[in-house]
Design brief:
about 375 residues, FAD/NAD(P)-binding domain, D-Amino Acid Oxidase, Chain A, domain 2, eight-stranded mixed sheet, five-stranded antiparallel sheet, about 25% helix
């Protein structure tokens, strides 16, 4: 229940931040961040609790969530990520059953490399099946035959309609009673011990029993607002581009990458989606493309395919934020009661979204099962090695 009488707001022309008077909670849970992490958690929590999502931008999912490769790949990432990805695939397939069009379509992942590198990758990844050279060329005839020795295929990988997935989370959360606010940059997070928080967001004063930090590249900044120790979450730049080609692209072709994951390309309708897979530390913000990164990548792909890239249709850059160990940070903070972390997903945010939201919701509501105890511990803000 929202009650502006609980806020003691300074006049609009007054200097300094809004001041919130602590009182009965407006909301059970206030989620900071309107990307896929925050919206998916709102989807899971809104049927049980009163929820508000606050987003700084005028558009939801403006930053990393809308600038992804739009893939779910069970063979991608460490073991906890692979587990969350498989669960998310199951969730999303169930969601799609009631929608006019599926959110997922098959997009196998083809990994190229030397005999030794591919064999080592297959040995530690149950989702990968080795292919012969001939089978690989049949799958992706635009490859230069001499550009690789061996290959492996993940036939479980899927392309994701990310806008539809985000809209599903948002619309279902709102239908269950969640309030979603844009243009609501958080200015202060004031903890009141076990009693909850007062938060200023845009021109609003809100109070909540639990604050969730789903602020992506700004997660450590938001933590500091609430007097919470940072966890060493560093944004990293990652770019992608849609390019035109001299020769026709097979729209049903696989996504292709080398074993060192130093680039990838895949069909995008009649065009090709490419990424240099760079990971350059960056400040939180509206990340911009470095043209030299795309130019160098075009040369690299030209050396391994016969497609003949002729121009850039559009390019973009997003931020992948993660701590030093590369795993998400999910759980209650040990030092500030009721401050909850849902951050650091790196490049795994889309592909783990539904399952990670389910894990977070179980932790918040106290319904975590014993089966998920080890997974929760692996992602805990208190695990060893975080900042």
């Amino acid at each position: 229940m929202f009650s502006t009488s609980l806020c003691n707001a300074a006049p609009a022309n007054a200097a300094g931040p809004l001041l919130c008077q602590h009182g009965p909670m407006d909301y059970d849970v206030l989620i900071i961040g309107g990307g896929i992490a925050g919206l998916s958690l709102a989807w899971r929590l809104a049927p049980q609790l009163s929820v508000v999502v606050v987003e700084a931008e005028s558009t939801l999912a403006f930053h990393s969530s809308s600038r992804s490769a739009r893939q779910m790949q069970p063979s991608y990432g460490p073991a906890p990520i692979q587990e969350l990805t498989m669960r998310t695939l199951e969730f999303v397939e169930q969601m799609s059953a009631g929608l006019p069009a599926p959110i997922l379509v098959p997009r196998p992942l083809l990994t190229l490399g030397t005999q030794n590198d591919v064999a080592a990758l297959v040995a530690r990844n149950a989702h990968l099946v080795p292919l012969s050279h001939a089978e690989t060329m049949e799958r992706s005839p635009d490859l230069h035959p001499g550009a690789f020795e061996a290959a492996a295929l993940d036939s479980t990988a899927m392309e994701v309609d990310v806008p539809s997935l985000i809209e599903f989370y948002r619309s279902q959360a709102v239908a269950a009673g969640a309030l979603v606010l844009t243009n609501s940059r958080v200015g202060s997070v004031v903890p009141h011990g076990s009693a909850g928080f007062s938060v200023t967001a845009g021109e609003r004063c809100l109070t909540a029993g639990v604050v969730v930090n789903a602020a992506g590249a700004w997660a450590d900044t938001v933590a500091q607002l609430g007097g919470v120790r940072s966890r060493g979450l560093v944004p990293h730049r990652r770019s992608a581009a849609i390019v035109s080609t001299e020769h026709a692209v097979n729209p049903a072709g696989p996504m292709v990458q080398p074993t060192d994951e130093s680039y990838y390309f895949r069909p995008d309708g009649p065009h090709l989606l490419i990424s240099p897979c760079e990971s350059i530390p960056a400040e939180p913000g509206d990340a911009q493309v470095v043209d030299a990164d795309i130019s160098e990548l075009i040369s690299r792909i030209g050396a391994v395919t016969t497609l003949g890239i002729t121009g850039v249709v559009r390019a973009w850059t997003g931020l992948r934020t993660h701590p030093v160990d590369g795993l998400p940070v999910v759980g209650f903070d040990a030092d500030v009661p009721n401050f909850f972390w849902l951050a650091g997903q790196g490049g795994y945010g889309i592909q783990t979204s539904a399952a990670l939201a389910g894990l977070a919701a179980a932790l918040i509501t106290g319904t975590l099962t014993d089966d998920d105890g080890a997974l929760a511990a692996a992602l805990s803000p208190q695990r060893a090695g975080l900042g």
